[in-house]
TrEMBL record, chain A:
Domain Origin recognition complex subunit 3 winged helix C-terminal: 575-710
Domain called Origin recognition complex subunit 3 N-terminal: residue spans: 41-365
Any one Gene Ontology cellular component term annotated for this protein: nuclear pre-replicative complex
Keywords annotated in UniProt: DNA replication, DNA-binding, Nucleus
Protein known as: Uncharacterized protein
Species classification: Eukaryota, Fungi, Dikarya, Ascomycota, Saccharomycotina
Compartments (UniProt record): Nucleus
Region spans: Disordered: 645-664
From TrEMBL, chain B:
One biological process term in Gene Ontology: DNA replication initiation
Compartments, record wording: Nucleus
GO molecular function: DNA replication origin binding
Family indicated by similarity: Belongs to the ORC5 family.
ORC5 lid domain sequence ranges: 225-290
Pfam families: AAA_16, ORC5_C, ORC5_lid
Protein name (database record): Orc1-like AAA ATPase domain-containing protein
Domain annotation Orc1-like AAA ATPase: ranges: 15-142
A GO-annotated cellular component: nuclear origin of replication recognition complex
Length: 713, 462
């Protein structure tokens, strides 16, 4: 049946229906539609699909997890188990993350607070400068709000009523007036219960009526009066959250105003700097710098926090899920190259946990008793590659204990016991990795006093290599062992001290160090013997402990390593996606078609021609080419369509034919309409711009299209 | 009918060196009699040439009724006008310090009317002076107000008020032809500056060293201070000239460190002027102090370096690609698009020979680095970015996020209409046609490029 361009679908399956079917076929649930979506709805850009009333589905779940019936026929109980496991582990992590993030800020907050209190001793005279704290908070502006709200709370808590703080952003204040108005209204409005309400009430309005005080809301005298009435307040801390994001001269003006009033209002100004001090310095006039007495505070380097994150969350004693090397590498790369933001890093970890428990039905293995009675899980366990290769290795041995394998393959209880032992092995692996990495850290510290030329590699940088076993025998390990063999007596002492600091009394390394007997060393010979012993012990220890996680059977259950999932979630490639959609529409419009390859939409045709042309495209040339392609398509299409009709006349000629109307009957004007549509769609996508050109000596202007998007970016 | 005798003027001059003429002029122009005073008088001279303090001292001495208003405290003219009126209305009430803010004055015309009303109500018997200190530092353009004040005599129906304008800038051009009294304060010479610095009392010197200081006698302190002032003047006068405020601030900042050897007993100071030995020794110890820039303090950076904290304030917090993007933005702003193929492409250069005409050479003579950055398109930024990063990266959303962050930090700025970040404009900020401009200087770019080990000079034509 030939379809015309403006054909309206009648009894065929509509687009939303097809879409819904696709969506729902995924997880095996079927939902009926309330009614056929009307013709009018076809033109909508998005659809709401209302599930019809299946009574079984109405039982409300109080968790977002669903049954993964495609891989393992789970029961609802298993889903709940996975959900509880997830919530438990994530709650555990979150509290630690919270404390980690807060601790990272804590030291800065403390220093800033000390600075604020130290300014109390200022002796006010004509030479007093305005105290300014420059808080270098890092380029990650999204965390500034949290940091500075915390700062204001921290200072207020510790100073009881003595300090009034106010946090302002200059970005949304267009002038000095507005900035001052913000500061004043926040401060005056802050302490309710005083008789200041009437001032705050009309802070933002033009004063009216017969009130006696008609001062303007940005007059700092208002604040002076307020301050005089406050008996307890000794300091006014003004925190400017975006010191380097403000427009032009605003910040210097604010500083000047606070400076002018410094003798009547005891201001302390805290500026959040997201760039660096040299850059900030160029934005502030020297005259303004002359007005301030400043001190800079560096918010703790986040690299240290990253090491702590590794210690306390990824490799802690309660770690249940290890981040795989690939995933960790990509997260670290993103952190260094793009974000420098600890919060995004931690949210990625959370996402990894969520994905693991959501999508892996075997993730409930963390509590083995949960699947004791579930035969399906037992069967699934036996299909895991690491288990299969374990069995293969075992049976390929010459004198193998087939009984053990037979038990594992037939008896569920022994399999579960084996899983339990593997789990134990995994926990041991984690703690040994953690210790080994710490040891490498300590060795590097000890050797850095020895030679300062080498750059220290952080634990976070070594992590991925460590858990894959790539560190065993690697240059860095060899170098460090080499360093041990050259240690002087003082360095040995230093190393021993560092080990005492960093390691528990019960740890293996501590025991190793206790056996050194440093006190009994006298003479060169005994020293040489000692260091050769140490290096041998260290070498053995590192060789034994830096093994790969793939050695553990069932490691697939304990290590989550899906790189692409996280990369696509957090940093989608928007350009590549759009380009692919235009070049290979079949990738996205994957509609089963009897005719084999799907016909391209006209937008794609226009885009293909677009890619073949130069920076300026003559409209007429473009149209001619387009027309030719469409006509050429038309010829082949006619044949295809005829054969199609002959064999199959029902719904399958369908959706795609409406999307790309069959060109058999296309007149030139219809093609032109399609051309205009394609061009305007390209324009809408930002590929093209209309312009007129006088090129080639022509006096008449020629209508051309300018290409805007560069290729390969 | 002057208020102060010549003897008194001489005494005041001892307090304020080299300001006899100014006192004399003030004394002859201003008087208590409201009929003889001009309605406006201006005190002009460079900043910190003693205008305000001479005037203050004079008014205190003659005990004229006056109101002192610092214009730099007023964000807008409305605040200033309101304060003038409020202060005038408070005259004669029980508590003159409690200002009456019940009036609000929106513009100068209204001000004249309200001033007339106020003066009528006041019915001044003696002259009243309104000092508008630092009129040039009013938060808004002050020129029209300045002109209003000097012409206000024609508009007032009641006399008795005199405005004293204190300004460190030269008169606005519009008022040059108006005749009204000026008192000029010439900048202090080196000798005068020294005399002013030396006038510090032993008590205040002692307070600079800390209130607990009791080791040195007054005479010793004075001797130390006098030699010290000479050193400071010799060191810093060429830099600051007659800016006495700055000199005083520096004197205060340096003194505790300078005097430390004396307090520690390393150098002995005698209370006489013939103390060359001790002075030379002290000078030698303190020589590094006087050559360092630590005490000048006009930059956030050098001061930090002085305390040795510069290392920790590197660029560690910027993500790596943000640095590359910033360098790319600089290159896009400072290299011309026609050189792009030569600079960034691997296509052989011979493909295009540059026409080396004399005309062009002349045009390009100014180093482009000294010119304002030119705008570039977003796509060009991305293209250059791709050329300078060591490994090929896809256009992920993170790159856009970083461009947005750089824009928020004003390291790159948007050019053209709708550049406000508050939204409202329908133009896509990260659309391919949006134009940008780098907002960072060459020094900083150089520093950043060193950080990421990028030889940025290779990509620049000059």
């Amino acid at each position: 049946m030939p379809a015309s361009v403006f054909e309206t679908p009648t009894k065929r399956k509509t687009a939303p229906e097809a879409l819904a079917d696709q969506m729902l076929s995924g997880d095996g649930e079927s939902i009926e539609h309330n009614e056929l979506i009307s013709d009018r709805d076809v033109h909508k850009t998005c659809y709401v699909i209302k599930p019809s009333g299946d009574p079984r589905k109405k039982a409300k779940r109080n968790h977002p997890f669903i049954r993964l019936d495609q891989s393992i026929p789970e029961t609802d109980g298993h889903v709940v188990d996975r959900w509880t496991l997830y919530t438990k582990s994530i709650a555990n992590i979150q509290t630690r993350l919270e404390s980690l993030l807060n601790d990272a800020d804590e030291s800065t907050l403390h220093r800033v607070w000390k600075y604020v209190t130290s300014t109390r001793d200022y002796h006010h005279d004509a030479y007093t400068l305005l105290p300014v704290g420059l808080v270098l908070a890092g380029a990650n502006i999204s965390s500034h709000a949290r940091l500075f709200t915390n700062m204001s709370k921290y200072i207020e808590q510790r100073e009881a009523q003595k300090v009034a703080t106010v946090v302002v952003t200059l970005r949304d204040a267009s002038s000095l007036r507005e900035a001052l108005r913000k500061i004043i209204s926040q401060l005056v409005g802050q302490r309710k219960g005083d008789d200041e309400d009437e001032i705050t009430a009309r802070m933002n309005t033009v004063p009216q009526g017969d009130q006696t005080d008609k001062r303007l809301s940005y007059d700092l005298d208002v604040l002076v009066d307020w301050f005089v009435k406050q008996e307890s307040v000794e300091k006014i801390v003004v925190i400017i959250q975006d010191a380097d994001g403000s427009d032009g001269n605003l910040l210097p003006e604010v500083i000047r105003m606070l400076f002018v009033y410094r003798n009547r209002l005891p201001f302390v100004l805290l500026l959040a700097i997201a760039t660096t001090l040299p850059i900030f310095n160029t934005k502030i006039p020297k005259r303004t710098i002359g007005m301030v007495d400043f001190e800079s505070f560096d918010v703790l380097r986040t690299d240290d926090s990253l090491t702590r994150l590794l210690d306390e969350i990824l490799l802690s004693s309660s770690t249940q899920l290890l981040l795989g090397p690939g995933l960790f590498r990509s997260l670290l790369k993103r952190y260094n190259n793009h974000t420098k933001n600890l919060e995004t890093f931690t949210s990625a970890i959370q996402y990894a946990y969520m994905t693991h428990f959501f999508a892996n039905p075997l993730s409930i293995i963390l509590t083995p008793q949960a699947i004791e009675k579930s035969e399906v899980h037992i069967i699934a366990l036996r299909t895991i590659p690491s288990f299969q290769s374990y069995v293969a290795d075992w049976t390929s041995k010459e004198e193998c204990d087939t009984e053990h394998i037979r038990e594992l393959l037939t008896d569920s209880t022994s399999l579960l016991a084996f899983v339990g032992s593997c789990q134990k092995e995994f926990y041991e692996f984690v703690s040994r990795q953690s210790d080994a990495l710490k040891l490498l850290d300590v060795l590097q510290d000890a050797s850095s006093t020895y030679s300062s030329t080498t750059v220290k590699r952080t634990r976070a940088g070594l992590y991925a290599d460590a858990i894959t076993g790539a560190l065993r025998g690697s240059p860095i390990v060899r170098e460090l062992v080499m360093f041990i063999t050259k240690m002087s007596a003082a360095t040995v002492d230093n190393l021993a001290r560092l080990i005492d600091q960093k390691f528990d009394k019960n740890s293996v390394i501590r025991k190793m160090r206790d056996s050194w007997n440093i006190g009994s060393i006298n003479g060169k010979a005994s020293h040489l013997k000692l260091i050769s012993n140490i290096s041998k012990a260290m070498q053995e220890y590192l060789d034994a402990n830096l093994n790969s996680y793939t050695d553990i059977v069932f490691h697939e259950l304990f290590v989550f390593d899906s790189v692409s999932l996280c990369e696509n979630t957090f940093a989608p490639r928007y350009r590549a996606t759009i380009e692919q959609a235009l070049m290979q529409p079949s990738y996205y419009l994957c509609h089963p078609s009897e005719a084999g390859e799907l016909e391209k939409p006209f937008l794609s045709v226009a885009h293909a021609l677009y890619r073949e042309s130069g920076t300026l495209i003559n409209i007429y040339d473009y149209w001619t080419a387009f027309h030719q392609v469409v006509i050429a398509k038309c010829d082949t299409e006619t044949m295809d369509n005829e054969s199609l009709q002959a064999t199959n006349e029902d719904e399958d000629a369908d959706y795609s034919s409406r999307l790309t109307p069959s060109p058999t009957t296309l007149s030139e004007s219809q093609t032109l309409a399609l051309f205009y549509k394609a061009i305007s769609e390209l324009k809408y996508l930002g590929f093209l711009k209309e312009m007129s050109s006088k090129r080639g000596g022509n006096k008449n202007t020629v209508a051309v299209l300018q290409k805007l998007v560069w290729d390969g970016l | 009918m002057t208020d102060l005798t010549d003897n008194r003027l001489q005494e005041l001059t001892l307090e304020f060196p080299a300001r006899y003429n100014q006192f004399d002029l003030l004394n002859s122009v201003l008087s208590k009699d409201k009929t003889t005073n001009p309605t406006a008088i201006a005190l002009v001279g460079q900043s910190s040439s003693g205008k305000s303090c001479v005037l203050r001292r004079f008014l205190q001495e003659v005990q004229f009724s006056h109101t002192w208003l610092s214009c730099d405290e007023c964000v807008t003219l409305r605040v200033l006008l309101q304060r003038i009126l409020a202060a005038l209305r408070a005259i004669g009430t029980q508590d003159p310090n409690k200002l009456d803010y019940s009036v609000l004055c929106h513009n100068s015309t209204l001000f004249v009317t309200q001033l007339n009303d106020t003066l009528r109500a006041l019915a001044l018997e003696e002259a009243h002076f309104v000092v508008l200190d630092r009129i040039d530092e009013l938060g808004e353009p002050y020129e029209s107000f300045y002109q209003l004040i000097i012409n206000i005599g024609n508009m007032l129906r009641y006399d008795g008020i005199t405005f004293i304008l204190v300004s460190s800038r030269s008169e606005p051009r519009s008022s040059v032809t108006t005749t009204f009294p000026h008192i000029y304060f010439p900048p202090y010479s080196k000798a005068e500056s020294l005399a002013i610095l030396r006038k510090e009392s032993p008590d205040s010197i002692r307070s600079m060293l800390g209130s607990t200081e009791r080791k040195l006698s007054d005479a010793q302190l004075t001797s130390l201070w006098s030699s010290y002032s000479q050193v400071i003047i010799d060191t810093y006068f060429p830099l600051y000239g007659p800016d006495i405020q700055q000199l005083k601030a520096i004197v205060r900042r340096v003194f505790p460190t300078y005097a430390k050897p004396v307090l520690d007993g390393v150098v002995g100071i005698l209370a006489s002027n013939r103390n060359y030995h001790g002075f030379v020794k002290l000078y030698k110890i303190n020589q590094p102090l006087l050559t360092s820039e630590e005490f000048v303090r006009n930059s956030f950076v050098s001061y930090v370096q002085g305390t040795g904290a510069a290392e920790s304030t590197g660029h560690h917090d910027m993500p790596m690609y943000a640095k590359y993007l910033l360098c790319a933005a600089y290159l896009a702003s400072y290299s011309k698009p026609r050189y792009d193929i030569r600079l960034f492409s691997r296509i052989r250069e011979s493909r295009r020979r540059v026409r080396n005409t004399a005309k062009q050479k002349f045009k390009d003579k100014i180093n482009s680095r000294n010119l304002a950055p030119s705008p570039f398109e977003y796509e060009r930024l991305l293209a250059i970015f791709q050329c300078i990063v060591p490994d090929r990266i896809d256009s992920v959303t993170d790159i856009q996020t970083q461009v947005a962050t750089l824009a928020t930090l004003k390291l790159i700025t948007r050019v053209g209409i709708g550049s406000d970040s508050s939204g409202g404009s329908s133009i896509d900020i990260l659309g391919s046609t949006s134009k940008w401009r780098v907002n960072v200087s060459w020094d900083i770019i150089l520093q950043i490029s060193r950080d990421i080990k990028l030889q940025i000079e290779n990509y620049l034509m000059d």
